[in-house]
């Protein structure tokens, strides 16, 4: 029987996870936390984005090596409903027959390698980084009661790993080097051009996720522009003006 008081993660292990310097050690500590939730397997995937190098993919799991090879060889990531769900939602998704209705072969092959019962949790941030955390076991179907009991723990673990792994992907020194003259790429130039084009006025106000000028500043702006022979609409800036391009297709979990 699964569930009960063991679903509460131990505070000292959570603290240990935040202090790990090595990514492999982070995953090992996270795996021990997943085992406290009566899970045998843990997988974590980060689709990250760096200004200088573009898309970066980091993957950690303790799945059978044969399954990892099959997943990559058969390009299961292209049809994996877990990745589709976690790309669009922060809600946990149970590994049910209904979820794999369009990919029954993937479901059957995963079960043959012990990845039978579990769920997945996704998270995203405003910089375009996306994480997927999966917990699973060979035996013991996951009931809705167990999912409700433990999903908050996996959500917390997913968000914590996301924060720690993204920090490793974007160390302060690397960010400064990426923005240094002579080393910035097209992505940096494009971002800076967008910032100049949408430069905020000191009196701009925020409304519904966008910025716009107050009316008296709009009138002043129009008057000045008319004198120069040009007329433009008040500047409105979407907070996502520097958002990255969509994530590339996933390769493997």
Strand content: 15-25%
Strand order of the largest sheet: 2-1-5-4-3
pLDDT < 50 runs, ≥5 residues? 174-188, 197-247
The rounded distance between the terminal residues' Cα atoms is 28 Å
The number of helices is: 9
Structural classification: alpha+beta
How many β-strands, per DSSP?
A: 8
Please give the share of residues in helix: 40-55%
Overall pLDDT: 74
Radius of gyration: 23 Å
Give the overall shape, derived from the CA principal axes.
Answer: globular
The sequence of SSEs as H and E is HHEEHHEHEEHHHEEHE
Structural notes for this entry:
- The protein has 253 residues and is an alpha+beta fold.
- The chain has nine helices and eight strands.
- The protein has a five-stranded antiparallel sheet with strand order 2-1-5-4-3, with helices on both faces. Strands 6-7-8 form a three-stranded antiparallel sheet, with no helix packed on it.
- Helix 2 runs antiparallel to helix 6.
- The radius of gyration is 23 Å and the shape is globular.
How are the elements arranged and paired?
Blueprint: H1 11-19, H2 23-36, E1 41-50, E2 54-61, H3 65-73, H4 81-88, E3 93-94, H5 104-112, E4 117-124, E5 130-137, H6 144-169, H7 172-178, H8 186-197, E6 205-207, E7 210-212, H9 215-227, E8 237-238
Antiparallel strand pairs: 1-2, 1-5, 3-4, 4-5, 6-7, 7-8
Helix pairs in contact: 1-2, 2-6
